[in-house]
Amino acid sequence: MNIAVNGALSNFGLGIGITLHKITKGGTRVLLDQKAAYIGAKSLSTKLGITGLAVTGYDIYDQGLNTSRSLDVIMGGVAFIPGVGWVASGTYFIGNLVTIGITGQSIGDHIQEAISGEKGDESWRPWD
Predict the structure, then answer these.
(1) Which of 4, 28, 77, 109 has a 20 to 30 A CA-CA distance from 102?
(2) What is the SS3 assignment for the chain?
(3) What spatial distance separates the first Cα and last Cα of the chain, rounded to whole Å?
(4) 3-state secondary structure at position 3
């Protein structure tokens, strides 16, 4: 564990206060007081990502494979890439919810319809 110590003037001008930071693998400095919240949020997001992929996997098993479910798996995997992956997958999932709310179909359904001409909710189940 790397610890960074910063000198700072105290509120009362009595001397130098010390603030301890933990430097994470990505180089982010996190106050030690915030460490538990940071670890908790990171753990929760990982568990939610795994749960989302599991739900999508079951949906593919139950309903079959289509463009929408394939995009959900891809973007669920991209969500585990720090920084750019978080932005890309977050944008996709929010955009997908907005698209479903407005049109009643997901982004993947629209893509499938545009490419193949078949209804967006058609699925392929090779295991049947």
Answers:
(1) 77
(2) CEEEEEEEECCCCCCEEEEEEEECCCCCEEEHHHHHHHHHHHHHHHHHHHHHHHHHHHHHHHHCECHHHHHHHHHHHHCCCCCHHHHHHHHHHHHHHHHHHHHCCCHHHHHHHHHHCCCCCCCECCCC
(3) 52
(4) strand
Lowest mean pLDDT among 35-39, 79-83, 85-89: 35-39
Hunting for tokens 């991209």 — which residue is that? 78
The pLDDT of 107-128, averaged and rounded, is: 76
Q: Which element (helix H / strand E) includes 7?
A: strand 2-9
- Supply the pTM of this predicted model: 0.64
Angle, alpha carbons 50-52-105 (nearest 5°): 155
Distance CA 68, CA 120 (A): 8
